[in-house]
Amino acid sequence: SLTDPPEILKILQNWVPRVSPYFDKEHYTYAGHQIVIQESIEHFGAVVWPGALALSQYLESNQEQFNLKDKNVLEIGAGTGLVSIVACILGAYVTATDLPEVLENLSYNISRNTQKMNMHKPEVRKLVWGEGLNEDFPVSSHHYDFILASDVVYHHTALEPLLATMVYFCKPGTVLLWANKFRFSTDYEFLEKVCNIFNTTILAEFPESNVKLLKATVREN
Question: For residues 212 and 150, what is the distance between their CA atoms, to the nearest angstrom?
C-alpha cells in the first residue's frame, strides 16, 4: 500500500574520481566491484540517470529482502547497463534490453564489466516497448522473477507501450522494481496508472534527487 512510509535515502557518491582522461567514462563501485561505464551523448539511454544509481544502491543494500542470486531478471530500458551489471554481480541471470540504437554501447559496458567474473553471463536483447512481445519473449519460456526499470518515464510518447510492457512481463510471482526521477505531471500520471493496475509500494525516496523507488506486483484476483 502507499500508506507505509518509504525509507528516505540519499544517493551515495560512490563513484571514484575519474582517473581516465576520457570524458565519457564513469567509475562506480557496487557490491565490492569497480564498474566502468561508457556513456554516449547521442542517446538518452546512454547516460547514467539518477534512478539507475538509486536502484543499484538499493539492490546492493537490500540483498536479503530482494535476493537476486540465481533469479531471472529482466531490465527494460537498460541504457548504459549499470543496473544490469549490478544485478549480475549480485548473482542474477540477467537479460538487459533496450532500443536497437542503444544496444552497442549497452553490450560493450556489460561484457566489459562482467567478462572476468565468475557469474551467470548476461544476455543483451532488443526490446521496443509494446512491440513483438509475444514473438520475442513468449510467456511459455520467459518468466522473470524481477523486472528492473530505472528512469524509463520522462517526456516521451511511449508511456502507453511502456505500461503495456510492464503488464506483459509482470506475472504472478514477479516483482517489478522501478526507480524514477519525478519531474513532470506526466510522470505522476504514469505512477497513478501503475498504482491502479498493480499492488504498489513506495520502498524508498531520494528527496535530493527527486527519485522514488517503487515495488509493484500483480493483483491476484
Answer: 10
Q: Give the pLDDT confidence score for residue 21 in this predicted structure.
A: 45
**How many other C-beta atoms can be found within 10 angstroms of the C-beta atom of residue 58?**
22
* Neighbour tally for 183: CB within 10 Å: 12
Please tell me the distance from the alpha carbon of residue 171 to that of residue 194, in angstroms, as a whole number.
Answer: 14
Q: Is residue 2 part of a domain?
A: no
pTM: 0.91
CATH number where 106 lies: 3.40.50.150
Closest CA to 144 of 194, 221, 87, 199: 87
Answer yes or no: is 98 within a domain.
yes
- Number of domains forming the structure of the chain: 1
Over the chain (221 residues), the average pLDDT of each successive run of 10 is 77 58 72 87 72 96 96 96 97 96 93 89 96 94 96 87 97 97 93 96 95 95 67
Residue 123 lies in a domain: yes
Q: How many helices (H) and strands (E) does the chain have?
A: 6, 10
173 backbone φψ class: left, alpha, beta (φ>0; ψ -120 to 50): left
Strands 72-76, 175-181: pairing is unpaired
pLDDT of residue 4: 75
- Structural domain harbouring 65: 7-218
- CA-based torsion, 107, 110, 115, 120: positive or negative: negative
